[in-house]
């Protein structure tokens, strides 16, 4: 087979010419378009990646703000709860204090009324009991009331036990054997001498006794040495009556 070298060279020339033309007129543009497209795609990818980063940042910021808002809400709720509890305690304490003050004022008022009542009772019963006692003793004895009181008083002195006598002697020694006898009525001088002698004999020492009759002294006779007292006095019965009345009032109020 014969080779047509002209045809071969012509085809080679045509191919090289085609390559030259393609490279000169088309390949550069294709490469430029491809590079531009690649850059555009890379730019879009970078933009998309940046948007994803921004979205993540926005999401983190949103979550952080939510956490801060939740913490703020919880703090406000806790603060409001504590404040409400404090106000509740304050209101309860104020109410309790007011009740205590009312209760105290009521007790003070009741105490004053009771003391007034007992004072009036004491005043009335003293006069009435003294009159009744005088009437009873005058009916039972030929002697008057004062003599009966004196006899009762001396009997009580004679019946003192040794322990009480020794106690009185010690007090008399400290007071230089001076004592006071108090009575509602004025004891005659002769009767005073009898009483002084009787008490001196019982105590075994000569005593100096002062006799007084104050107006506020309740029916009876008292022998006093410093803070020690012995005798018979209607005041003892009045005080007992006061205690009983006071006890009755307390029982009634407790119901």
TrEMBL record:
Topological relation to the membrane, as annotated: Single-pass membrane protein
Record-linked InterPro entries: Alt_ATP_synth_F0_bsu, ATP_synth_b/b'su_bac/chlpt, ATP_synthase_B_chain
Main location: membrane
Sample GO molecular function, one term: proton-transporting ATPase activity, rotational mechanism
Residue runs in coiled coils: 45-116
UniProt GO cellular component terms: endomembrane system; plasma membrane; proton-transporting ATP synthase complex
UniProt keyword annotations, A-Z: ATP synthesis, Cell membrane, CF(0), Coiled coil, Hydrogen ion transport, Ion transport, Membrane, Transmembrane, Transmembrane helix, Transport
Compartment(s) of residence: Cell membrane; Endomembrane system
Chain ranges passing through the membrane: 6-27
Protein family: Belongs to the ATPase B chain family.
Role, per record: F(1)F(0) ATP synthase produces ATP from ADP in the presence of a proton or sodium gradient. F-type ATPases consist of two structural domains, F(1) containing the extramembraneous catalytic core and F(0) containing the membrane proton channel, linked together by a central stalk and a peripheral stalk. During catalysis, ATP synthesis in the catalytic domain of F(1) is coupled via a rotary mechanism of the central stalk subunits to proton translocation. Component of the F(0) channel, it forms part of the peripheral stalk, linking F(1) to F(0). The b'-subunit is a diverged and duplicated form of b found in plants and photosynthetic bacteria.
Complex formation: F-type ATPases have 2 components, F(1) - the catalytic core - and F(0) - the membrane proton channel. F(1) has five subunits: alpha(3), beta(3), gamma(1), delta(1), epsilon(1). F(0) has three main subunits: a(1), b(2) and c(10-14). The alpha and beta chains form an alternating ring which encloses part of the gamma chain. F(1) is attached to F(0) by a central stalk formed by the gamma and epsilon chains, while a peripheral stalk is formed by the delta and b chains.
NCBIfam families: alt_F1F0_F0_B
Protein's name in the database: ATP synthase subunit b
